[in-house]
């Protein structure tokens, strides 16, 4: 959810990697990828590590709401969660960016912006806003992960209890 990624050329000079989607007033197309998280095992997709549907839908809805608070909601587009969709787009340029929100505990994330003592008030406020945004995103990811874990553990416990009951009958 990095609206500060400078992926576009400066509209005045044409210099590469100088403008954000916000700077350009562009639209965002958000496409959920939760159900596409698969590992290939014996030439078949295995979706066991994908986030459960209810948890991922909740997280995606929260993500869209957060995007709407950070940017013009009229410029944020999305499809129907979990639906079969045909998405057409035109990529401009020879690069593809993959933004992965997963973080390894105890490591610093790339793109962290922390204000320094010598920063101006506006730069310090901007840095504090980014830090608050990152903390909110971390809390969202953590809550979704915990919900998915509880849901998965609940299913495993229920399946284990059913197996024990079948064995005793």
Task: Output the keywords.
about 170 residues; mainly alpha; two-stranded parallel ribbon; about 5% strand
Concise structural overview:
The protein is mostly helical and 169 residues long. It is 41% helix and 7% strand. β2 (39-41) and β3 (44-46) form a beta hairpin.
How would you portray this structure in words?
This protein is mostly helical and 169 residues long. 41% of the residues lie in helices and 7% in strands. The protein is built from three helices and four strands, in the order H-E-E-E-H-E-H. The protein has helices at residues 21-24, 53-70, 121-168; strands spanning 28-30, 39-41, 44-46, 76-78. It has a two-stranded parallel ribbon with strand order 1-4. A two-stranded antiparallel sheet has the order 2-3. The radius of gyration is 21 Å and the shape is globular. Residues 104-123 have low confidence and may be disordered.
What share of the residues does DSSP label as strand, in percent?
5-15%
Shape: globular
Q: Write the H/E string, N to C.
A: HEEEHEH
Sequence stretches where pLDDT stays below 50 over 5 or more residues: 104-123
- Helix and strand content put the structural class at mainly alpha
Quantity of strands, as a count: 4
Radius of gyration: 21 Å
Helix count, DSSP H or I runs of 4 or more residues: 3
**Percent of residues in helices:** 40-55%
Major sheet summary line:
2 strands, parallel
Order of strands in the sheet with most strands: 1-4
């Amino acid at each position: 959810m990095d609206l500060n990624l400078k992926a576009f050329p400066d509209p005045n000079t044409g210099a590469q990697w100088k403008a954000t989607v916000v700077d350009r007033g562009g639209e965002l197309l958000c496409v959920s990828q939760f159900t596409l998280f698969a590992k290939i095992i014996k030439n078949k997709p295995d979706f066991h590590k994908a986030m459960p549907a209810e948890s991922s839908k909740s997280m995606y809805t929260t993500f869209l709401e957060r995007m709407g608070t950070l940017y013009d909601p009229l410029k944020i587009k999305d499809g129907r969660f979990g639906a079969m969709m045909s998405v057409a787009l035109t990529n401009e340029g020879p690069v593809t960016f993959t933004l992965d929100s997963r973080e390894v505990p105890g490591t610093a994330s790339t793109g962290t912006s922390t204000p320094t003592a010598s920063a101006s008030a506006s730069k310090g406020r901007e840095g504090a806003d980014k830090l608050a945004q990152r903390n909110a995103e971390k809390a969202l990811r953590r809550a979704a992960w915990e919900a998915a874990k509880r849901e998965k553990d609940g299913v495993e416990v229920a399946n284990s209890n059913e197996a024990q009951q079948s064995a005793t009958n």
